[in-house]
């Protein structure tokens, strides 16, 4: 139906005029959009609902043994299929909304009306060309469709349902468990193809990333060797620092920590006299304080806090001086990550724990810095932190407690030399036990590849000193 021809049409009048359309078609179209928006909202919200469930939620579902709980657990064990089903379903629904919205807008806003609106806009902008008006009409129809559909999908299909799902994740997961199970069957072939494709892409990217990282480090190391020439001590120290920087991100806390048996600590029941004696003999500025055993570290005592109490009697209650903000880190943490955490939290020492939560060692900011610039000496340090003796280029003696990482560094072999036989050991004594299979006696000799290990000193509980001989494989 056209507007009355005897009434001049201004842009405002055209905006207020809407042509009649079939009532049944309009009602059916609007009803379809509402239903599709509800479906889009439920599917989008279910993504947040399922992937925000916690371990406590899953444990509760296992105990209640309901059908919806079993379905949620079933879908949880197949996260890739679940996510693919949600994405495919949501895309089908959104495409349907776009098609149906375009159909309804064409009924409400026919091409003739858009052309008249475009002519009015063109006239206001000073365009008189009919071709420009037709082009503007097409652009106008496209913009109306995009703006309307985008508004509906973003507000009712994404934002609102995801906010609701965040607050009612378990409730929505129960509601959508069965529909998603049905949809996973319906879209099974497409989901499986999508999951296989993404898995293949992930594997390729991981392989490239690993290869790229490895090659990059090797290339940097070769570039350093080519760039830095000469054998002067200063040049060699600079070369060692550059190599340390390249390897810095791959070193773990376990490789540089002070092991549990070598930690200087004090029990929280010790007398003030005993505490002062430990502080004097150790020369450390921070001393861990434990309750009963070293697995229960109560805090860190800063020796500087004792300076104002040096004249106190032996009965002085020093325990209130303990700082309880103990920082724990796992053995596997990379030291570059730990350095950033030390910087952000303004800390200098951390307690290293093993997989069972027991104390396995202690690491300090100084330990991390020494990995780059070498040993840092002060007036309290011994001549060498790693106690060893170089007899000649092929013979060394090390304490049994020396870390394998340090031993390999000092004798000039790759860090992974003993990976095949060291098992869980991280010290020279641990390596000997792995190779021998039992506690060795003094003067026992063990062989591995081009290395010979001779037990120089041993007690009933510890391997004290080991001599290492490196045989020339080219001989």
Explain what this protein looks like in three dimensions.
The chain has helices spanning 11-16, 23-51, 55-64, 67-76, 79-108, 111-125, 130-167, 169-186, 188-227, 233-247, 253-256, 272-282, 335-345, 365-373, 404-411, 419-422, 428-436; strands at 258-259, 266-267, 286-291, 293-302, 328-330, 349-353, 359-364, 388-392, 395-399, 445-448, 451-458, 463-470. Helix 2 crosses helix 8. It has a five-stranded antiparallel beta sheet, covered by helices on one side. Strands 1-7-6-5 form a four-stranded mixed beta sheet. It is elongated. The chain is 56% helix and 13% strand. The chain folds into four domains: 11-186, no CATH class; 208-246; 250-373, CBS-domain; 388-470, Uridine Diphospho-n-acetylenolpyruvylglucosamine Reductase, domain 3 (2-Layer Sandwich), CATH 3.30.465.10. By secondary structure, the chain is of the alpha+beta class. The chain contains 17 helices and twelve strands. Residues 3-21 have low confidence and may be disordered. The termini are far apart.
